[in-house]
Amino acid sequence: MALTDFLAASDITSAINACRANDSFSPKKFFAMVGLSKKSPPEIEKIFMILDQDKSGYIEQDELQLFLQNFSKGARPLTAAETRAFLLAGDKDGDGKIGWDGRVTRPSGRLTFIVMSLVLEAELSNFALDRPPVNSKLAILY
Ligand SMILES: [Ca+2]
């Protein structure tokens, strides 16, 4: 399985091109451009699993650094500053890596899926097994 199974090639190309310059990468912008912001939590979980290349259950710094290459093999690695900012944005519990923990948060009493600038530290609200993704409203809170 590859990210290109989930995303349009043209969106990937645009998103990669938009952050070609060093230090121009913004996770939120990238996720929006590439179409990840619109994905359902189950799809995002699959994407997370692709990004977690060593299947550790977390996206670590080295995996983040090569983040763009998951989308396009020829893409540049993220700079140290970008990698750090990305990690800080996604690492809500401060453990130095980004996890998919499925924690439940219900900020407004309504089912809201909060996925860090996207894939990251998914605080999935009510990603309950007994509920169909009717509630798959995805809020990107960054
Ligand atoms: Ca990993």
TrEMBL record:
Which GO molecular function terms does the record list? Answer: calcium ion binding
Q: Which residues form a coiled coil?
A: none
Q: Which CDD domains match?
A: EFh_parvalbumin_beta
Does the record carry Nucleus as a key word? Answer: no
Checking Pfam families in the record gives: EF-hand_7
Q: Where does Ca(2+) 1 bind?
A: D52, D54, S56, Y58, E63
List ligand-binding residues for Ca(2+) 2.
D91, D93, D95, K97
Q: Which residues form the EF-hand domain?
A: 39-74
Matches recorded under Gene3D superfamilies: EF-hand
Recorded hits in PROSITE patterns, A to Z, give:
EF_HAND_1, EF_HAND_2
Q: Identify the domain of life.
A: Eukaryota
Q: Name one GO cellular component term.
A: cytoplasm
- Give the InterPro entries listed for this entry: EF-hand-dom_pair, EF_Hand_1_Ca_BS, EF_hand_dom, Parvalbumin
Keyword line: Calcium, Metal-binding, Muscle protein, Repeat
What does the UniProt record say this protein does? In muscle, parvalbumin is thought to be involved in relaxation after contraction. It binds two calcium ions.
Q: Which family does it belong to?
A: Belongs to the parvalbumin family.
PANTHER family, alphabetized: PARVALBUMIN, PARVALBUMIN ALPHA
Under which name does UniProt file this protein?
Parvalbumin
